[in-house]
Structure formats: C-alpha cells, structure tokens
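Hi R.,

As promised on Friday, here is the backbone we talked about, encoded as structure tokens. Could you run it through your design pipeline when you get a chance and send me back a sequence?
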C-alpha cells in the first residue's frame, strides 16, 4: 500500500512539473479574445500591473477597450503568479481573462481587454490579492 501511495505522489509531482515546464522558453503568454466575442483592435496602449508581497499595484485601473495589460511580479515577490478574472476558483465572469496556468515569477502574461465593463480579478494562487480593471 505504501508503494502505491508513493507512486501516486510521484505521478502527481511529475504531472505538475510537466504543466509548469510547458511555459519554459516563452517570454510572454498571451490572452486572446475568443472569436464569438466582439474583437476590439488593440490601441497600442500598454499598462502594467505588478503583483507584490502586498498585492497588486495598481489594484484599480481604468483603460480603454483594446488596451493591453501586462501582468508581472516584483523581484521581492518571487513566486509563481496566475492572474484571472473573478469568481475564484472558476474565473467565469470573464473566462478569457485567465492565464490558465501558473506563470513563473520572472515571466509576464498579457491580455488585451476587448470587453467594456468593470472586471474584478485575483491571483489564483493567492486569491486574497485582488484588483479591478475598468474598461471604457
């Protein structure tokens, strides 16, 4: 029995390592607006939101439809991050706004906001870090 449990633990660790390693070598992961939605051409304006040990900076931001937000972490945070729309853990309010996988601390993830509205978000790995993006 203990060998079976050990095997399951090793299998789980191997699968976790596989999914995390899928992002290696990519400088930026991109969030795409699905085809069934109205796609707004990017305006070329980029904004940055940084996850620190104290939370997102800025935690509230107003942007225009078509603007891109680049999510990153501060050097002292140094952990995986996973930006995603609310509601935790399903990310169902704006399901396309979800990196879908953990992002390494030194990597970024960007998303072009094509839907007008007020979009609350969180870090899926530390859901107490939250923010609001208002798209006009």
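Update: got your reply. Pasting your designed sequence below so it's all in one thread:
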């Amino acid at each position: 029995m203990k060998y079976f449990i050990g095997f399951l633990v090793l299998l789980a660790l191997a699968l976790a390592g596989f999914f995390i390693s899928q992002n290696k070598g990519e400088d930026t992961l991109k969030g795409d607006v699905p085809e069934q939605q109205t796609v707004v051409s990017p305006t070329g304006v980029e904004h940055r939101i940084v996850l620190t040990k104290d939370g997102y900076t800025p935690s509230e931001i107003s942007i225009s439809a078509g603007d891109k937000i680049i999510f990153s972490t501060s050097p002292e945070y140094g952990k995986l991050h996973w930006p995603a729309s609310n509601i935790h853990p399903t990310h169902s309010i704006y399901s396309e706004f979800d990196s879908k996988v953990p992002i390494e601390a030194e990597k970024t993830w960007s998303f072009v906001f094509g839907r007008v509205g007020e979009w609350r978000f969180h870090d899926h790995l530390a859901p107490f870090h939250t923010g609001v993006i208002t798209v006009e």
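One thing I noticed while checking it: The chain has one helix and nine strands.

Thanks again,
M.
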